[in-house]
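Thanks for the sequence, V.! I ran Hydrophobic seed protein domain-containing protein right away. Repeating your input here for the record:
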Amino acid sequence: MALVTRTLASATLLLLLLLSSLVFSFASRPVAVQTPPQVETQATCKMNTGKCFDLFQHLMNWSPGKPGTDHHCCTVVSGLSAYEAASCLCYTFRSRFFGMEMNYHAAINTVMNFCGLTIPRYFKCY
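Predicted structure:
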C-alpha cells in the first residue's frame, strides 16, 4: 500500500511540475511587437524643400511678389512633425547657404511660422 501511495504521489507531483512549467512557459513568452514602417523623410527633404528656400527668399524680400499661404513649401512640411520639418529646413538652408555664416534658426523659424508651425523648443540646426 505504501508503494502505491508513493508512486501515485510521485506521478501527481510530476504532472503538477509539467503543467506548471507549461503554463509559465506560455506566460513568459516574449510578445511580438509590430513596429511602424520607417518613413523616408530625408528623401522628401532632398526633393521638395527647395521650394522652402524660394519661400524664404520671398519672405526676406529678396524676390518680387508675395507668396500665398498655400505655398508648396507649406504643403511639404505640413505632412511632417515639427522636428522633422525643422530638420528638413535645416538641411535645405545648410546646403543652399553652404559656407556662409547665417542664423539658420531664425530662417527656419521664419518659414515655419509662415506655414503655421512652431519650431521645437530645443531644436538646433548645426
